[in-house]
Amino acid sequence: MVLQGHVGEIYTAQFSADGSFLASSGYDMQIFLWNVFGACDNFAVLKGHKGAVMGVKFNADS
Q1: How far is CA 38 from CA 18, 35, 42, in A?
Q2: pLDDT of 3-62, one tens digit each?
Q3: pTM for the whole thing?
């Protein structure tokens, strides 16, 4: 699986509890949400952080 979209280093990635989504974040101050199955599409980008995003976590119910 090749995920393209970030424009800088990726500092962290986390799978959802059920394993169906992946969140990645890093130097570009964005969080990308990915489908894990099928085409592994990026379905959302969370923007607005004022600095690099150093960590992401899903809550228990994803």
Answers
A1: 16, 8, 11
A2: 788 999 999 999 999 899 999 999 999 999 999 988 888 999 999 999 999 999 998 875
A3: 0.87
Residue entry with tokens 């894990």: 36
Residue 23 near residue 13 (C-beta atoms within 8 A): yes
CB 16 within 8 A of CB 22: yes
Contacts of 31 (CB under 8 A, 6+ apart): 23, 24, 25, 45, 46, 49, 53, 56
- Cβ–Cβ under 8 Å, residues 16 and 58: yes
